[in-house]
Amino acid sequence: xxxxxxxxxxxxxxxxxxxxxxVLCCSDTRSAEEDLSGGHIRQLLKEAGHELCGYSVVEExxxxxxxxxxxxxxxxxxxxxxxxxxxxxxxxDVSIEVVGGMVDKLLPGFGELFRMLSYEQIGSxxxxxxxxxxxxxxxxxxxxxxxxxxxxxxxxxLILPELGHVVREMGKVQTCPESPARETSPVKHE
Length: 190
Description:
Blueprint: E1 3-4, E2 7-8, H1 9-14, E3 20-26, H2 36-47, E4 51-58, H3 62-73, E5 80-84, H4 95-100, E6 105-106, H5 108-122, E7 132-136, E8 139-144, H6 148-170
């Protein structure tokens, strides 16, 4: 079997080349016009041939973030949600807590690799990022820091090279987080 890096090339050949994505900026201080990171994500997705299904900015309030995520994941065509902001250790940085409570399968490698690559660029300050990724129902979410440099690193080095592969591995299940189709347990609940 041929390998491209550590991933069998057959996986990449079978992966979708166009993925439906929604971009969400979590910020108390940025408007859509001031969101350079979200704009950069949208531009990189376009250049890579992916579909932008939507974009919004939401205040860093847990209930607002949760509702925005649920709404985005239920939009037709959305397979992956890319968020920016709220990954630090400040009091208003709550994206990780919100998403952590929604994820049913964590992908720890994303955060680990992101911090390793960040360390090469910014040194020990990389440990202040809590970037994460995981599955919510049949969709996938990447939670990135709010800086344009961090978004560029995550998108170019980690997300874009594996976006189709992630969707392929999930089987492209098209369900909303609260959809009854999400329940796959053979056990009947009364």
